[in-house]
Amino acid sequence: MMDRLSDLPLGWTLLAFWCLAMTRSNGAYWIGRGIAAGTSMSRFAKLLDSPLYQRAQAMAARWGVLAVPLSFLTVGVQTFVQISAGVTRMPLRRYLPAVALGSAIWALIYGSIGMAVILAWLETGGHWPPVLLLLAVVTALVVMHRRRRRPANPGSKSRTVSSPSG
């Protein structure tokens, strides 16, 4: 797939990435709507208790509809913000423009800089040790960051679902 995308003009590459982001994000939104519609007994219900979902809820509570496009600048929280938007039943008249903008931001980042990095890596033979080293460093940083951010009272977990706004 990379060969095909790299052969396309930049505009078509960006469009392909935008379509991928829109498909994934809207799928997550509708999963959230399904959870809100009564599927809380399904396998997706545990998402509401996950730390990433809690961070997404906090981001949505702070930034409102701006959380949707801003989530495309994050790693790990993005899908949970989309699910959160669905669970809180963010109106489509607000969600669709926000997710379209966020998908455009994501497409621009990954369709230009991201593709250049991946293609450069593949041209060097695509050796796995640098990738594994990078993953190990990122994992270590995430673990250290989470240990520092642990609340003083870990027994106080609460699930917050805000009401829909019109």
Automatic annotation (TrEMBL):
The cellular location(s) given in this protein's UniProt record come to: Cell membrane
Keyword list, A-Z: Cell membrane, Membrane, Transmembrane, Transmembrane helix
Membrane topology annotation: Multi-pass membrane protein
Task: Locate the coiled-coil region(s) and give their ranges.
Answer: none
An example GO CC term for this entry is: plasma membrane
Q: Family, per the entry? A: Belongs to the DedA family.
Task: Name it.
Answer: SNARE-like domain protein
Q: Give the organism's phylogenetic lineage.
A: Bacteria, Bacillati, Actinomycetota, Actinomycetes, Actinomycetales
